[in-house]
Amino acid sequence: MNRIQTLFAAAKASGKKIFTAYLTMGFPDMKYSERAVETLIDNGVDIIEFGVPFSDPMADGPVIRLAGQKALEHGTKLQDILDCIARLRGKYPETPFVLFSYYNVLFSRGLESFAVAAEAAGVDAVLAVDVVCEDRGELLDVLRKHNMTLVPLIAPTTHPDRIAKIAKGVEDSFLYVITVNGVTGARAGLPPELEQRLTDIKAITGMPVLAGFGVSNPEQAAGIGKVADGFIIGSAIVRILLDSPDDAGLKKLAEFAKAF
């Protein structure tokens, strides 16, 4: 089993829900991002999504867009993030690491070159936001060759038949279920129909299901945890670091993680 499968198997046996955290890497700089990842893992986060900043982040809301823009202004590159992951892998050998990117960044590097470097760094899976099921074959084949898997997205509007199609071939991963229509960003409430949808997706696929987009407080996470295998938080975490990109921000980040 890979690290993702091992984590979910242990969580299922214990009844634990998986806490996944997204960070825009390189904001305010790579050294700080690395410390932020350490803070999250040390305070209970189970999976880290390493966000690769991109110039046209169509799925992201204003918080992650701003952090990504600042990271790019500071010259953050894909290789910088992979080097950071390699250092963190030595400290956290069991934590699943997901590289969260847009396809152009990976394609521009060259898929084979990227996959070789990602495997060496210790990446477990890739989430390519803008790659649809019909076009993912080339990327998935290269990832498989280098002992990695793919994390697919399930939209609120995805039909059950298509959900089954998306899940096929990535059973060693998990499904990232988008909770709301629109871009990323913390929200005051989540759709009332979400619980039933998460239940249906688990029944259709038999795969671990994590829900994200809009999750920002423990009450929302607990609601998701009633039916899903865990939750994903991004914008609320990035917002903390935008407001306080210093040691005080890391302290706030630790308190935020502990609350979940």
Describe the structure.
This protein is an alpha/beta fold and 260 residues long. 49% of the residues lie in helices and 14% in strands. The protein contains twelve helices and nine strands. The chain has helices spanning 3-14, 30-42, 62-73, 78-91, 103-109, 111-121, 137-145, 160-167, 194-205, 218-225, 235-243, 247-258, and strands at 18-24, 47-51, 97-101, 125-128, 149-150, 153-154, 175-178, 209-212, 230-233. It has a nine-stranded parallel beta sheet. Helix 2 (30-42) links the parallel strand 1 (18-24) and strand 2 (47-51).
Walk across the major sheet and give the strand order.
5-4-3-2-1-9-8-7-6
* Molecular shape: globular
* Mean pLDDT, all residues: 94
What's the story with the biggest beta sheet? 9 strands, parallel
